[in-house]
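ARCHIVE CARD
Drawer: 12
Card no.: 0347
Subject: one protein chain, sequence and derived structure
Cross-reference: see card 0346
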Amino acid sequence: MEDFEPEALENWKVWREMSVKKYEQEYDRLNVHFDVYTGESAVKQESIDKALEKLEEMGLIEDSDGAKLVNLEKWKLGKAVVRKRGKFGSSEVEKMWLTRNIDGTSIYLTRDIGGAIERYDKYKFDKMIYVVSAQQDLHLAQFFKVLELMGYPWAKNLMHINYGLVQGMSTRKGTVVFLNQIIQEATQVMHDQMQKNEEKYKAVVDPELTSREVGISGIKIQDMAAKRYSHPFAS
C-alpha cells in the first residue's frame, strides 16, 4: 500500500468498505452514530515524511545503536524510536515503540503524528480524544509529548481515555465474543423471560423488538456498572 500498488490499494478499499458497513450496523443497534470513519491507513505518506523531517530539523532526534530516537527520559517516558535500521538492535531498542520499520514502512508513532497534524489542519479541533486500551498508555504519552516538543500548541488538547481488557478474551487465542453474539444471546434470554408470563406476552405489540431493546439495555447497564479500568498494581 505504501508503494501505491494498485492491486493492494483496491483490496484495501474493498475490505475497508466491508468493515465500515459492519461497524455501522453494529453501532446502529446501540443507537451510536459517527459522522466520519477513518483510520491510520488513511494518513498520507507526505504527512509522515514531513513529521520526520521536522523532528530532524528541530534536533529532537538522536542516533542510538543504529536507530533514531526521541529522548523522553527527562519526562520519564523512555525513548521513542522514529526510525530503525537493521534487522536486529539492542534489547532496549527492540522493546521500544517503532515508528519506521526495517523496510521503510511507517508504523505507530510516525503515523499517529502525521494523522494528528492532518486532523488539526482539517478540523481545528478544541479537543481530540483517543479512546485506546491501557496497554497503549506509554505509546500515547510518548506521542503527546513528541507533538508538544515539536511546538504544536494544540498538543495540550489531546486526551487519552484508556480502558481495560475483558479477562479471558483474546483474538490470538480465538476466545473473543463479538458484540452481535452478545446481543443475540441477551435478546434470547429476554424473550424467554417474557414468554413465562403468557398474558403479558400477548399484550406486547412486537415481542422480538422489545426483547432486543431490553436485552441491549441490559448490556449497556452491565458495561457501565463496571470500572472502565482497574490498574493491575492497585490494592
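Annotation on reverse: The chain has three domains: 1-37, 40-161, 179-225. Residues 24 and 32 are 8 Å apart (CA to CA).
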